């Protein structure tokens, strides 16, 4: 059985692939801007291990109490990248990590922190179809001191099937970029123009709360207090002092627009975000909602 120990970016321990070089290649194809090379550091235990047991893939890491098994290449690749993100979060204790989608229109970074299954991954990839560059569909590193966010260069993983109410051109765009898929979700393939490579940094210029549903669509002012609470809840990684966290989120929400995006489908939501960014977030609220 082959064994490959690989260095991923700045991590100080290798990832090990036991009889799974094909999975290592697929992982590498899902990451933009990461340096992936044979491990050349000291002899230390791997931080993540991928192996095989018969027709199953097995993943071991500190973020699961027991080794986890997966049936498909899509599942093991996505699980590995999830743990790779956790490993990077442990490596960078100077950053907080937000559960958030983040896209840049016209060089203006919009962040939408949200719980799981709120639609942020779908909105993220649809935004790319509308001309955005993706920084995150799930996890966004954020520097409390500088107010800058960082792209992880991780291919988005939206749920399947794609919503039936998307425009035919949007569906065609998304389907053409599905690289791996199982019955639950897809791992997408975007070039560097549409997916910010690992390490790309930009100031946050707008924080958006998602409100998908049947209400009147548009972008509307959001409560600073509610936005601060959302940012603090949807985070993990480094644990700054409560006072430092409050100061940083207060500074952010005081310096950039805090908006609520109400939208019925992701095409409408992405179009509203694109227009707001194009207008520098200084647009008339009634016009934005029209």
Characterization of the model:
By secondary structure, the chain is an alpha+beta fold. The chain folds into two domains: 3-91, Rossmann fold, CATH 3.40.50; 96-289, Rossmann fold, CATH 3.40.50. 30% of the residues lie in helices and 30% in strands. The chain contains eight helices and 17 strands. The protein has helices at residues 21-29, 73-91, 120-129, 168-175, 224-233, 242-255, 266-278, 285-289; strands spanning 3-8, 15-18, 36-38, 48-53, 56-60, 68-70, 96-105, 108-113, 133-136, 139-142, 148-150, 178-181, 186-188, 201-212, 218-221, 235-237, 258-263. Helix 1 packs across helix 2 (73-91), helix 3 (120-129) packs across helix 7 and helix 5 packs across helix 6 (242-255). It is globular. The model is unreliable at 283-290 (pLDDT under 50).
Strand content: 25-35%
Helix content: 25-40%
Order of helical and strand elements:
EEHEEEEHEEHEEEHEEEEHEHEHH
Class derived from helix and strand content: alpha+beta
Output the CATH class name of the largest domain: Alpha Beta
Number of helices: 8
Assembly level: single chain
CATH fold name of the largest domain, please? Rossmann fold
From the 3D coordinates, which CATH architecture of the largest domain would you assign? Answer: 3-Layer(aba) Sandwich
């Amino acid at each position: 059985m082959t064994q490959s120990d690989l260095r991923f970016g700045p991590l100080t321990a290798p990832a090990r692939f036991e009889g799974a070089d094909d999975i290592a290649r697929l992982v590498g194809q899902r990451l933009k801007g990461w340096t992936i090379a044979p491990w050349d550091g000291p002899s230390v235990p791997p931080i993540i291990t991928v192996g095989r047991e018969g027709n199953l893939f097995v993943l071991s890491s500190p973020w699961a109490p027991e080794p986890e098994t997966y049936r498909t290449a899509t599942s093991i690749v996505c699980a590995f990248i999830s743990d790779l993100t956790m490993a990077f979060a442990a490596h960078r204790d100077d950053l907080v990590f937000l559960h958030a989608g983040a896209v840049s229109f016209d060089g203006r970074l919009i962040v939408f922190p949200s719980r799981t299954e709120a639609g942020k991954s779908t909105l993220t990839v649809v935004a790319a179809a509308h001309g955005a560059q993706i920084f995150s569909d799930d996890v966004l590193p954020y520097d409390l001191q500088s107010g800058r966010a960082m792209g992880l260069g991780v291919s988005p993983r939206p749920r399947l099937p794609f919503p039936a109410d998307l425009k035919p051109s949007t569906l065609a765009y998304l389907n053409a970029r599905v690289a791996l898929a199982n019955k639950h979700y897809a791992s997408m393939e975007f070039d560097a123009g549409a997916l910010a490579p690992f390490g790309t940094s930009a100031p946050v210029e707008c924080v958006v709360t998602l409100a998908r549903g049947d209400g009147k669509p548009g972008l509307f002012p959001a409560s600073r207090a509610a936005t601060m609470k959302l940012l603090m809840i949807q985070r993990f990684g480094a644990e700054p002092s409560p006072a430092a966290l409050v100061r940083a989120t207060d500074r952010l929400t005081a310096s950039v627009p805090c908006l609520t995006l109400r939208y019925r489908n992701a095409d409408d939501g992405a179009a509203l975000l694109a227009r707001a960014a194009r207008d520098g977030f200084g647009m008339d609220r009634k016009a934005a909602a029209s």
